[in-house]
Amino acid sequence: xxxxxxxxxxxxxxxxxxxxxxxxxxxxxxxxxxxxxxxxxxxxxxxxxxxxxxxxxxxxxxxxxxxxxxxxxxxxxxxxxxxxxxxxxxxxxxxxxxxxxxxxxxxxxxxxxxxxxxxxxxxxxxxxxxxxxxxxxxxxxxxxxxxxxxxxxxxxxxxxxxxxxxxxxxxxxxxxxxxxxxxxxxxxxxxxxxxxxxxxxxxxxxxxxxxxxxxxxxxxxxxxxxxxxxxxxxxxxxxxxxxxxxxxxxxxxxxxxxxxxxxxxxxxxxxxxxxxxxxxxxxxxxxxxxxxxxxxxxxxxxxxxxxxxxxxxxxxxxxxxxxxxxxxxxxxxxxxxxxxxxxxxxxxxxxxxxxxxxxxxxxxxxxxxxxxxxxxxxxxxxxxxxxxxxxxxxxxxxxxxxxxxxxxxxxxxxxxxxxxxxxxxxxxxxxxxxxxxxxxxxxxxxxxxxxxxxxxxxxxxxxxxxxxxxxxxxxxxxxxxxxxxxxxxxxxxxxxxxxxx
Length: 501
Fold this sequence. Notes:
The protein is α+β, with helices and mostly antiparallel strands. The chain contains 19 helices and 14 strands.
């Protein structure tokens, strides 16, 4: 089949699934008011890969059919550069506001399949073979895949990882002739209404005795017993002028219930194998997927800088305070860009001939972005001030009795028209003040764990050799630790999961 079109993507959404939003059990995802805007946007992204086929498509290594570049298993720095261009093209389409476009999971499973040797350890050879087969299916059918990896919080005092006897967390309850049966819940399936299938894979390491919770698999959204409870919609049906972001980019988030769901045997990648569950995510996953996530973050920061700059131009704010705040946003964007490039330039082979970026610069970004993004929102709020609340709607601008007054009293500085001023400040409000803006700030604060937890991770995986040598040099106690010790970064990545305990 190969790369799908937007029309083919929307046809896939017509398949039955148990999706709830508000008081509605949704029958038709693509036309429901809560989902229609984002469904249309995602369809455009599927069309985009064809419009930008030289950047976004590649031949399948075995069949030759066109597949998205995000399915590539990188074998060199040149492959990472090619993938970068595709990921950037997709991120620019949503200006980084949709964090879980399908390329996120495409990159994730390409990384898993590339390190199938890791998945095959600890007696999990069959699961690894299933995973490799699934990754090919994912690429060749251009599946839109969501995922859910976090255990629900019922009692924080019990910790984040489920122990034996936990009846809420997703766990295996039986074997069948065709597979396994699972029961429980997980969060937070972003993109769920717009997905063809859902993935479960490891997150927090599991304690001894919690083997039943050690699961990984992928199944169709319409699998019997699978239910999705979506959060309140942030999507607004009005014009793109009035709500340029909320009308298009609400990717949704869902609580997932597995009500005695049967998973086919060939779709099971980890079957109650705690040793495999606790180790498969410790090396390749993190530096691989962070290339996609940080390209998206860079794009969003660059958009924020451009938006803030336009706001100051509209009202001719050339004050030192405004310029300082603009420079602050630019600094965040530029540091993000530089860190991504450093990670790609220092890419190395992680095993089995697979190349991923150096995780160090990406770990630093992962820790600091939960602070940067809320600060960017604060800056745009400060620059906008009351102007964010004084932006006429499209209907008001079209009213013949109001338009002359709006043109007089709500025009911009110099020769900027009132409708241009309104468009800029409505865009800014949608970015920092709307329901979607609040959801997006929460998303960035806890994206792949909190900033505090990621600082712990960064410290755990960082090579301290050079820093210690500098200190020892001053103390006149330099022991001449060889530079080759920096190669221990590969082994240090094994601490990723443990550091999240």
